[in-house]
Specification:
heterodimer, A: alpha/beta, five-stranded mixed β-sheet, B: alpha/beta, seven-stranded mixed β-sheet, six-stranded mixed β-barrel, 24 helices
């Protein structure tokens, strides 16, 4: 069962064009919603679908929409296409291969929340997806599916494309809003949440690309049909980015519920050269790692959560037995240290401290005290080192850098300790 | 006041205002929560994370920044739990990993919040063994401020100040993560009138100011609270010295005046105090025309003989006095008493023809206080560019506008507040009456302004003179309009630090001490009774009258008290000619100014930080100034110089100390009756004392609304106004500020430039009634077409005079 990738698989050469989109029932759902459903009815279907956000936090989409204060206008809809989590490349495919599916989803969502101004924020490193979306926008405007009086329904929607300037943190919704306003990409203190005070201080819904790409299907088939897919709490299909030491890395759309082991075998073709899975990241670089012993955990939001990690942005990174876990953790921590916005102390200073200590261990200059030091520095960023993390920081970026550190020290402490040279006693 | 809520902080229940920030509520109830980025006068950002505490709002304790947490009922707060302690230690360790421990050579050492809070809340030692982050050591970000990015802990106090408070965001965060740094923009230095505030609020030694760098250690400083001497806002300051040298002014948070802020002229304009150019001994002009040093006795003998001769030959009316607006109330009172009671002249003026009707400044009603701006619905500024002349008042108006007050500005060109104004209008100098008539009628571009003034009160009118070519009566006409608006009050604007105090002490021909009218026989006889001496009956001359009287040979002797008419009188050439013409000029001053250079006797005066006393600001608020250092050489307090002149003339003012004079003022001066020295001592919660304007004593002179529309000028109309930094002695002898004076240019509207063939950058000769100046042209699209703006108080800027019409000739 596939929802998001049906068209691009059937028509790989032109699934991104208006012509193909219209020939495959495109814009029928939006027309139906705008001309024969009330906004409340559309909202009800989305609520009934139990669709949870695909950006990382997994918050129920229909519930989020319900947080908008009823009387404040204007409201804005912002589409988060700043897909920057290492290992995550699913939104790229949706933007590049089926941009009209997203635009139609945006029209439906905007209609449901009574919003007339929407923005798509795409990371600057995605020039081709951006070009495709730009072209699709032009086609949609030309066809009258955007702008004034869409489908003769009286509903107006202006949709603007904006490109990011190269900061991971702008995937965090409030940093994204700052960036969209032309400010430094720095997360805001919450509350207030964007639904109450977002873009330009107005109520704003921020939804992920994949989340909104589901809208046409939900309107066409009904929320109940969507909710019936997959196990409870993880309704619908989901696009996973599989990477690392597998034979066939790539994006795979599945109904949730199978185990990680099954997914890696069935879709990824197993681990390269028949090796064993040493560990894997179940949901993007921010997520705590699982070991090869945990391959039987079902791919659902709740099962992964119970096991102490998250499905996050849907990026599964597999590491085989040859992996130097310190090098792997260093690579991820370096990324977060580089991408820290610099606003709050624990993240700005703590992530680069962690990176420096890991780098020193890799250089063979580690000290025995460094293992506990790494954990305690981590604890000063994410007190208690639990999951979901507590934070001394403004946003979860700091705790994200902690995940690989605690993962290797929890699962592979002996291996890390083995990299520490014996202390030479001072003469 | 929001409804109180109950919060429990470390086990003790307190009632605090609902919605108030936890960090403030805790502090107010006795619990200090450490912080770096939070500043009570700026919006919270929760960035440094130092103020993390555990807050339980019913869902279990959660680490939360107390600077962003509003208090709600039933909240349970722990500021000392193990979790909190660990978090605070963690944050401090993080802050220190890249902070250079160069405290022994850091100016902040000894008064450093990072140092102090590390001692109080820190882990004791660092576990960081890696290489610290390095940046080029201090870089100049302006003429005044240096930035050491290695010391910076990125609390964003400075960047937020310049964005939120001063409105010139010239410093910003750049880069990100561990390389985040505060920097200026390329080719744009941190040239803000308020840059020194960022140095004061920096919680480390990242920002330092050139005038104080490496001059002292905090523990060696002596300090006293006082009132800034640079303009009439009267900011509360701490004066700090070491070894009898004033080294620093810091802003002190006084709610009704400056809320802790200072402008850079106020903050750094202390260097003149220790200038080697200060006068140290009395000077008398010798036979050869050069100054000769003499003794006090020698100088006073000369003064008494010459004054005696003039009085004998021409009567007391042959003598006049100018100045007094820069000293204390006690100095001004003694100066006035010397002139009126001892010499017997009524020719005296604290203003130099550059101000407004003294009765208007002293007694306009209803009078606004600065805090009235905070609750104003609409603010009208029709007067000088506040940013240039009364900078900290500019901050307050800016804040009020940002918090929602409507701001209307009427001025011949854009002022510093235009970007936050809700309505602006401009007019060609001289055509103010037309602009006022349009505002009254609500016609054309004034319709919205009038609507706001009529319907969105309370209205506060900040009213003064936009420039020297403008009819000073215009301000009164504007005031007459404003005070009839619903819920309106008026703040009269004049610039010199104690001009309001000097006028309250009667330093104007039309005023007697205590906002009493000279014209009132009752007031005259009451004062005469107090002073036990007759008061001159004849109408006196104001500054313009004194200058013309000297030139015409009607006045022969002139006492100057801290006044420099050759530089400050709008017609500088006339003032120079008058002083050259006088038989005797006695100058009581701290420096040889353009005017005191022309004097026959120069008496060295002590000044600010060297004398005790009281001053009165533009609200009528009386505040203390205090002595911390001794003046140079044989310089003495002005009031004691006036007493000695009185004694040398065979009389006495009865002045034995500033405190004693203040006591006499409180007995003799109606408006100041009952004010005590103790009442004015600075201390926690002390805010000075506002002298109320009572309508009965001196009603504002009614001014007919139609003050006459001037003929349309054939030539350009001169706009002559001041800039903050100038070539006056206080700036010229404060070496850090001296180079900041921008110099004079001829600003013209580009449309006029095109019409008259005057290119941007061209050299023109601007000729007015009093003289001409050769100036470079700058095109200024914000200036009203038909006008030319020349800053008055710059080298070459003042010689054109104050006549409206000027001629421009292109020289190249």
């Amino acid at each position: 069962m596939k929802i998001l990738t049906t068209r691009m698989e059937a028509h790989p050469s032109d699934s991104h064009t208006m012509e193909r989109y219209l020939a495959t029932d495109g814009y029928v759902a939006a027309r139906t919603a705008l001309t024969s459903m009330t906004p409340a009815a559309v909202h009800e279907e989305v609520k009934a679908s139990n669709l949870r956000g695909r950006g990382g936090a997994g918050f129920p989409c229909g519930v989020k929409w319900g947080f908008l204060p009823p009387d404040t206008r204007p409201r804005y809809l912002v589409v988060n296409g700043d897909e920057s989590e290492p290992g995550t490349f699913k939104d790229r495919q949706l933007l590049e291969r089926d941009p009209h599916q997203l635009i139609e989803g945006i029209i439906i969502a905007a209609y449901a929340i009574d919003c007339h101004r929407a923005f798509i924020y795409i990371r600057g490193e995605y020039p081709k997806p951006a070009r495709r979306v730009e072209q699709a926008l032009a086609e949609a405007y030309a066809a009258g599916y955007l702008g004034r009086d869409i489908f003769g329904s009286g509903f107006d929607l202006e949709l603007t494309l904006h490109l990011g300037a190269g900061a991971y943190i702008c995937g965090e919704e409030t940093a994204l809003l700052n960036s969209l306003e032309g400010k430094r990409g720095e997360p805001r203190i919450k509350p207030p949440f964007p639904a109450v005070e977002g873009l330009y201080g107005k109520p704003t819904i921020v939804n992920n690309v994949e989340t909104l790409s589901n809208m046409p299907w939900i309107v066409t088939n009904g929320g109940a049909a969507y909710a019936a897919l997959g196990p409870e709490g993880s309704a619908g299909t989901r696009l996973f980015s599989l990477s690392g030491h597998v034979r066939k890395p790539g994006n795979y759309e599945i109904v949730m519920g199978m185990t990680f082991g099954e997914f890696i075998e069935q879709h990824g073709g197993g681990v390269r050269e028949g090796r064993e899975v040493k560990c894997f990241i179940p949901g993007g670089a921010s997520a705590p790692w699982f070991t090869g012993d945990q391959l039987d955990i079902p791919i659902t939001i709740d099962d992964v959560g119970k096991a102490g990690s998250m499905l996050g942005s849907g990026a599964i990174v597999v590491m085989d037995e040859t992996t130097n876990v310190v090098a792997a953790a260093h690579s991820i921590v370096s990324f977060f240290a580089h991408e820290s916005c610099g606003q709050c102390t624990p993240c700005r200073e703590g992530t680069s401290w962690l990176e420096m200590v890991l780098a020193r261990i890799l250089r063979g200059e580690g000290r025995a005290v460094d293992l506990d030091l790494l954990l305690d520095v981590s604890d000063n960023i994410a007190p208690g080192l639990g999951w979901p993390p507590k934070m001394t920081t403004i946003c979860p970026l700091g705790p994200s850098a902690v995940s690989p550190v605690t993962s290797i020290l929890r699962h592979f402490r002996d291996e890390v300790a083995a990299m520490i040279p014996a202390e030479v006693p001072v003469a | 006041m929001p409804d109180p809520v109950k919060v429990t902080i470390d086990g003790a229940e307190h009632e605090v205002p609902g919605g108030s920030l936890l960090i403030q509520a805790a502090q107010d109830t006795g619990t200090y929560i450490p912080r770096f980025c939070w500043h009570p006068r700026m919006k919270p950002v929760g960035m440094c994370r130092m103020c993390l505490v555990e807050v339980d709002t019913g869902r279990g304790p959660l680490l939360t920044t107390s600077c962003t947490m509003p208090c709600t009922d039933g909240m349970v707060v722990s500021t000392k739990s193990e979790t909190v302690k660990k978090a605070q230690e963690g944050v401090l360790e993080f802050l220190l990993i890249n902070h250079p421990l160069d405290c022994p050579v850091c100016d902040r050492g000894g008064e450093c919040p990072l140092q102090d809070q590390t001692m109080a809340y820190g882990p004791g030692e660092s576990r960081f063994v890696e290489e610290k982050r390095h940046f080029e050591k201090p870089i100049d970000i302006s003429e005044l401020v240096l930035l050491d990015r290695e010391r910076c802990i990125l609390c964003a106090r400075c960047t937020r100040f310049s964005d939120e408070i001063s409105g010139d965001p010239l410093i910003e965060f750049q880069d990100r993560g561990n390389y985040t740094q505060v920097l200026t923009f390329p080719d744009e230095p941190f040239r803000s009138y308020f840059s020194g505030n960022t140095v004061q609020i920096c919680p480390v030694g990242a920002l330092t100011a050139r005038p104080y760098r490496f001059r002292a250690r905090p523990w060696d400083l002596e300090a006293v609270e006082s009132t800034c001497p640079h303009c009439s806002v009267g900011c509360r300051i701490s004066v700090q010295s070491s070894q009898n040298q004033v080294l620093r002014f810091l802003g002190v948070d006084n709610e009704p005046t400056n809320q802790g802020w200072l402008c850079d002229k106020g903050r750094f304009g202390f260097e003149y105090i220790g200038s080697p150019e200060r006068l140290t001994v009395p000077l008398v002009r010798g036979e050869d025309g050069e100054f000769e040093e003499t003794t006090w006795n020698g100088a006073l003998t000369v003064v008494s003989q010459w004054l005696g001769d003039i009085i004998a030959e021409h009567g007391p009316d042959g003598v006049a006095g100018l100045g007094g607006a820069r000293g204390t109330n006690e100095d001004a009172y003694a100066f006035g008493k010397l002139l009126r009671a001892v010499i017997g002249t009524n020719h005296l003026d604290a203003q130099l023809d550059d101000g407004l009707n003294p009765q208007f400044l002293s007694a306009v009603t209803p009078r606004a206080s600065i805090p009235d701006l905070d609750s104003a619905g609409t603010i009208l500024v029709w007067g000088p560019d506040l940013k240039e002349e009364l900078p900290v008042l500019y901050l307050r108006v800016r804040q009020a506008a940002q918090e929602g007050a409507n701001l209307i500005i009427i001025h011949p060109r854009h002022t510093g507040l235009h970007d936050v104004a809700s309505h602006t209008a401009s007019y060609v100098p001289g055509r103010g009456p037309e602009a006022l008539a349009a505002l009254r009628a609500g016609s054309d571009e004034m319709a919205e302004a009038r609507r706001l003034l009529m319907s969105e009160g309370p209205v506060v009118g900040l009213i003064g003179r936009t420039g020297y070519t403008e009819d000073p009566m215009l301000a009164e006409a504007v005031a007459a309009f404003v005070r009839d608006l619903p819920q309106a009050s008026i703040m009269p604007l004049a610039r010199r630090s104690n001009v309001f105090g000097a006028l309250d002490m009667g330093l104007a021909p039309s005023l007697l001490p205590g906002r009493a009218a000279f014209a009132s026989p009752e007031a005259r006889s009451a004062l005469a009774a107090e002073w036990a001496t007759p008061i001159p009956e004849s109408t006196g001359r104001d500054a313009a009258g004194i200058i013309s009287g000297l030139t015409a040979g009607q006045i022969h002797g002139l006492l100057l008290f801290g006044a420099d008419p050759v530089r400050d009188f709008p017609d500088q050439a006339a003032a120079r000619a008058a002083l050259e013409q006088a038989n005797l000029v006695v100058a009581v001053d701290q420096f040889l100014t353009d005017s005191s250079r022309l004097a026959d006797v120069v008496l060295p005066a002590e000044g600010f930080t060297e004398t005790d006393g009281t001053v009165t600001n533009l609200e009528g608020r009386v505040q203390k100034v205090a002595r911390l250092v001794a003046g140079p050489g044989q310089s003495r307090p002005p009031w004691s110089i006036f007493e000695d002149i009185a004694v040398s003339l065979g009389s006495s003012l009865g002045a034995v100390s500033a405190e004693a004079i203040q006591k006499e003022i409180a007995e003799v001066v109606p408006a100041y009756r009952g004010l005590t020295w103790e009442q004015l001592e600075w201390g926690p919660g002390r805010e000075g004392v506002v002298i109320p304007t009572s309508a009965g004593e001196q009603p504002l002179r009614y001014v007919p609304v139609d003050i006459g529309v001037p003929a349309q000028t054939a030539r350009l109309a001169l706009h002559s106004a001041r800039t903050l930094y100038d070539d006056g002695v206080h700036v010229r002898f404060s070496l850090s500020l001296a180079r900041l004076a921008p110099g004079a240019y001829a600003f013209v509207n580009p449309a006029d430039g095109a019409r008259l063939g005057i290119a941007d950058g061209a050299l023109v000769r601007v000729t007015g009634a009093a003289g001409s100046a050769d100036l470079e042209v700058r095109h200024d699209p914000t200036l009203a077409a038909g006008a030319v703006y020349v800053p008055f108080n710059q080298e070459d800027g003042g010689g054109i005079g104050d006549a409206l019409e000027v001629k421009l000739e292109v020289l190249s």
